[in-house]
Design brief:
heterodimer, A: 88 residues, mainly alpha, 0% strand, B: 424 residues, alpha/beta, Peroxisomal Thiolase, Chain A, domain 1, ten-stranded mixed beta sheet, two-stranded antiparallel ribbon, 14 strands, 36% helix, 19% strand, disordered N terminus, nodulation (chain B)
């Protein structure tokens, strides 16, 4: 289940970054992948659509959002939590 | 103009008819507004002086489905107080706001456009969304309610030039009339063009400014998508700012040839002395300090002002992380040492971001600074941000005599427009 979620996120990010999914590691930051602020907002939207969840993210204060975008690993963990909350 | 002898030109400049560039001088002889702070100029200026906040819980259909629920909405707006049934059927809210503001401005100016002067007068207004409420309501009718028929006036009601056209009809302005849409800089671009037209002699009087009425379900829903809106407050330049808050309303001014205004003994509110625009040519949403700086510097140059002549800047100051620090960097660069001596405030924390109408409502703060010697504050200011290290006139209005001011507008799309005014 968890791997599946991570793979789906990887595919979304890969499409946004125009890379292959295996190039997206959990340590990659949005910056590493060449994803700018608009690309990030677009990726978050695509993730919301994919999992039918609502992600609390304000582009003005990314560091204060409950949704940690430091790297792909933190994004994946946060999405897993939101998916679990939705199922609960 | 070019055929004039230098002597005649110098004499005209000396008489005060023409500015230093040998072109006509342009003055503001009327002002009108409606926004969340008030239905007219005196009430709005009183709110500026008091540092009143017009932002509150939004109230319209389906607001419960929005994640952003605050805005500077005109809650007590009753179109039937100002317009008859037939007019309401034909006027979207953005047109209603523009007409109301224009009537106030023309009444203050004392102008009557009957006869030849109407042929040499026009109107140029800014709006970003035009009749967005009309789009929203009628999409709902056909998509959500499944109806196959809409009211016959949908198109004339929603078109972006509807407000400018109705203003031209209301007063018989038969010269240049059009609408400018440059997102958040629409009003400044509109007023700048109006200024240039009067200055060049292309028109004698121009009604100008802008209006916006985007506070409806579809309008706010679209903005939510960008994730730049605040859920709680607009705090320009404050370190803990977390986004913009939308407003609605209009501002309309009478820009008039100085000689014409003097001849008829008009009360002059301020002189428009310069205007410049620039394009970042860089990013569709992220602002550029260089683009903003170029517009500021060019506006000073156009006005024949030195940086140290400027006492106050009405900032674009949206309260987003990106705008405020970029704008402060641009001002610091353009003004050098003088940046630490001038005052710069954003009134958006009071009237919200009125998008295509915002520059027009903000010009009122510039007029208040020049005429009344009162600088409108940046309210909601809580924490100093080293990246916004200018005197932002935090939270309380300040008395100060200023001789020249600027008004900044920097739009999505990287389009910048800066206007310069001077005390008369």
């Amino acid at each position: 289940m968890t791997d599946q979620i991570r793979d789906r996120i990887r595919a979304i990010i890969a499409e946004q970054a125009m890379l292959e999914p295996d190039q997206i590691t959990e340590n990659s930051t949005p910056q590493d992948l060449g994803i700018d602020s608009l690309g990030l907002v677009e990726s978050i939207f695509a993730i919301e659509e994919e999992f039918d969840i609502s992600i609390p993210f304000n582009a003005n204060e990314p560091e204060r959002s409950e949704f940690d975008i430091s790297n792909m690993g933190t994004i994946m963990a946060a999405v897993e939590r939101l998916v679990a909350q939705k199922a609960a | 103009m070019n055929s004039r002898k230098p002597g005649a030109k110098a004499a005209a400049a000396q008489a005060g008819v023409e500015g230093p560039n040998g072109v006509r001088r342009v003055v503001i002889t009327g002002a009108g507004t409606i926004n969340a702070l008030g239905h007219d100029v005196p009430t709005t200026m009183e709110a500026f002086r008091e540092g009143r906040c017009g932002i509150s819980q939004l109230d319209f259909r389906d607001v419960d489905r929005l994640s952003i629920q605050i805005g500077a909405q005109i809650h007590d707006w009753r179109a039937e107080d100002y317009f008859n049934r037939q007019q309401i059927l034909l006027y979207d809210k953005f047109t209603q706001f523009a007409l109301l503001a224009a009537k106030q401005a023309v009444a203050q100016s004392g102008l009557d456009f009957q006869g030849a002067i109407g042929l040499r007068s026009g109107v140029v207004l800014g709006t970003a969304g035009g009749g967005l409420n009309t789009w929203d309501e009628n999409y709902r009718t056909v998509y959500e309610e499944g109806k196959n028929r809409v009211h016959p006036f949908v198109v004339p009601k929603l078109m972006n030039n509807a407000a400018a056209s109705h203003v031209s009809m209301e007063f018989g302005l038969r010269g240049p009339a059009f609408t400018v849409a440059t997102a958040c800089a629409s009003s400044n671009h509109a007023m700048g063009l109006a200024f240039q037209m009067v200055r060049s002699g292309g028109a004698q009087v121009m009604l100008t400014g802008g209006s916006e009425a985007m506070l409806c379900f579809g309008g706010v829903k679209a903005w939510e998508g960008l994730r730049v809106m605040s859920k709680d407050a607009c705090r320009p330049f404050s370190a803990n700012r977390n986004g913009m808050v939308q407003g609605e309303g209009a501002g309309v001014f009478v820009f008039e040839d100085y000689e014409h205004a003097c001849t008829r003994g008009a009360d002059i509110l301020a002189e428009v002395v310069g205007f410049a625009m620039s394009s970042d040519a860089q990013d569709i949403v992220m602002p550029s300090a260089q683009g903003a700086e170029r517009a500021i510097t060019a506006a000073l140059h156009d006005a024949g002002l030195n940086p140290e002549d400027v006492g106050y800047i009405n900032a674009h100051g949206t309260g987003t992380a990106a705008n405020d620090k970029t704008e402060c960097a641009a001002v610091a660069h353009a003004f050098g040492h003088h940046a630490d001596r001038l005052m710069i405030s954003s009134t958006k924390a009071m009237h919200g971001h009125i998008i295509g109408g915002t520059g027009a409502v903000e010009l009122l703060a510039c007029i208040m600074a020049l005429r009344d010697g009162v600088i409108a504050p940046t309210i909601g200011y809580q924490e100093a941000d080293p990246e916004c290290g200018l005197d932002v006139v935090p939270n309380e209005a300040r008395e100060a005599r200023v001789d020249a001011v600027l008004s900044n507008a920097f739009a999505f799309g990287g389009l910048n427009a800066v206007i310069a005014l001077r005390r008369v």
